[in-house]
UniProtKB/TrEMBL annotation:
It comes from Aeromicrobium choanae. This is (3S)-malyl-CoA thioesterase. InterPro entries: HotDog_dom_sf (IPR029069).
Amino acid sequence: MTALPTLEELEPLGALFTRTVPERYQDLNGHVNVRGHYDLHMDAAEESWERQVGLDQAFLDRTGQSSFSLTHHVQFHREILVGHEVSTHLRILARGPKTVHAVTIVANRTTGEIASTLEFVEAYVDLTTRRTAPFAPDVAERIDELLEQHAALPWSLPPSHRLGTTRPTE
């Protein structure tokens, strides 16, 4: 089993945001529920796509291009409690001509542990046809820059099933 990175090892990724976990995320078990984890991951993915990749509303309005999620797989590693401080991070794992494979990480700053990871595949789409399309060159370049930086990190995360940027051939 792959060991989870330390919070120190996450630092080169930069934090997309840091926040205190709100009470609305608590479930009957007294910890953050699945929806709370997922909301944190979705906020992180949106933030990274807008800020790091450049797929924001202005880009969509200008090009008619965006991305659609193809698959998500959340792994829960440690509890988060209401009032804990968490940070979120993005790591690009691979890129194909029309898809990107990445993971968002929710780190519990209060306990010093990785709380959960969301591994996902996202497809680039032309919204006029609602079909996948090759990445625009500037978007591909930004993703590739991140991928190069992230590939140089000395740690990995436990993989989830068989997610990736291509479908297996039959």
